[in-house]
Amino acid sequence: MQLRGPNYEGRAIILEIDRKQCPDFFLDYILYITVTKSLSSRTVQEYYLDIRLFLKYLRMMREPQFQDINDLQQIPIKDMSVSALQSVTLQDLYNYLYYVTEERENHDRARGRKVSALRSFFRYLCQHQKLISQDPTEQLELPSPKKALPRYLTLEQSQQLLQSLNSAYPERDYCILTLFLNCGIRLSELVGLNLSDINFKEAKMRVLGKGNKERMVYLNEACMDALHAYLQVRELPEGSAETAVFLSKRHTRISKRRVQQVVETALAQADLGGQGFSTHKLRHTAATLMYQYGNVDALTLKEVLGHASTSTTEIYTHLSNQILKHATDSSPLAHFERNSQSQAEQENNEDHESKSENTDITNPE
């Protein structure tokens, strides 16, 4: 069964659901959240897996014929009746969370997502479809996550990262790092960029964030320079209609994994490897530098980063475009210019590119 969700610039959301193994009330729920909620395809898929696991767990705990089965995946749920959910209690839910913690080693975040999935599922059954009379998740509490300060690069480390880049595709990879460090966009947002998303006249670009929500990201001087430099060397085979901004060596949209490899390699070149930094940590870095050096308040940062909160949505609507533009302009990396490469570095790049073309086959994008 394929469920197609919102389409943005030709990028369809497709979910793979095993219809033959799911009861109708469960399939109806998945269809409901796919077409009515602003959830990403990944979130819907995770909800599907979480609820499916819960239904299997419920049968294992309640029905004797399944209690000796060690692997929950072997327990069928196709013939399960919605009436079995009528008697689910709050304690059943906590028992399930204990099971995924102890037996499946789920961490706080995974358990938190399962709680959100259960709440959504039982709310649908009780309030929307009236299939059960009571919602057992009303008093279900979210696990308290362990709070940890986000890791980020200092200004000096950020400059070192940009300056040390030595790549077979220098313009592309430098542009990728620059957008991460100045705009704080997500990995999925960068990979999903199309040429039509960039407005060079107004120095801004459109990105598709979590929940398929669009927002405008303003581009400072460093971002504009990096984009112009990259697009001048971005080449496509004759007749190609590829619209992605960032391309792989095969002239197709670059993959998330390839971008991660670009960042990992650049970090290693800057002697910053093995310290827990990643593409997402570059997003933390962008936000931290704006806040530390740009006199940017937390509410503006949330808008720049595309964080969503129902309690603050109305506050965000009155933020002017000039304030948002100032946020990226205020980054201390806004005017960073990389020193010209030496002849030795250029020769090294050519050697590296030759090796990359030979070795990349085992590490496809």
TrEMBL record:
<feature type="domain" description="Core-binding (CB)">
    <location>
        <begin position="20"/>
        <end position="126"/>
    </location>
</feature>
<keyword id="KW-0159">Chromosome partition</keyword>
<dbReference type="GO" id="GO:0003677">
    <property type="term" value="F:DNA binding"/>
</dbReference>
<keyword id="KW-0229">DNA integration</keyword>
<dbReference type="GO" id="GO:0015074">
    <property type="term" value="P:DNA integration"/>
</dbReference>
<dbReference type="GO" id="GO:0005737">
    <property type="term" value="C:cytoplasm"/>
</dbReference>
<keyword id="KW-0233">DNA recombination</keyword>
<dbReference type="Pfam" id="PF00589">
    <property type="entry name" value="Phage_integrase"/>
</dbReference>
<protein>
    <submittedName>
        <fullName>Phage integrase, SAM-like domain protein</fullName>
    </submittedName>
</protein>
<dbReference type="InterPro" id="IPR044068">
    <property type="entry name" value="CB"/>
</dbReference>
<dbReference type="InterPro" id="IPR010998">
    <property type="entry name" value="Integrase_recombinase_N"/>
</dbReference>
<feature type="compositionally biased region" description="Basic and acidic residues">
    <location>
        <begin position="349"/>
        <end position="358"/>
    </location>
</feature>
<dbReference type="InterPro" id="IPR050090">
    <property type="entry name" value="Tyrosine_recombinase_XerCD"/>
</dbReference>
<dbReference type="GO" id="GO:0006310">
    <property type="term" value="P:DNA recombination"/>
</dbReference>
<dbReference type="InterPro" id="IPR013762">
    <property type="entry name" value="Integrase-like_cat_sf"/>
</dbReference>
<dbReference type="InterPro" id="IPR002104">
    <property type="entry name" value="Integrase_catalytic"/>
</dbReference>
<dbReference type="GO" id="GO:0051301">
    <property type="term" value="P:cell division"/>
</dbReference>
<keyword id="KW-0132">Cell division</keyword>
<feature type="region of interest" description="Disordered">
    <location>
        <begin position="332"/>
        <end position="365"/>
    </location>
</feature>
<keyword id="KW-0963">Cytoplasm</keyword>
<keyword id="KW-0131">Cell cycle</keyword>
<dbReference type="InterPro" id="IPR011010">
    <property type="entry name" value="DNA_brk_join_enz"/>
</dbReference>
<dbReference type="GO" id="GO:0007059">
    <property type="term" value="P:chromosome segregation"/>
</dbReference>
<keyword id="KW-0238">DNA-binding</keyword>
<feature type="domain" description="Tyr recombinase">
    <location>
        <begin position="148"/>
        <end position="329"/>
    </location>
</feature>
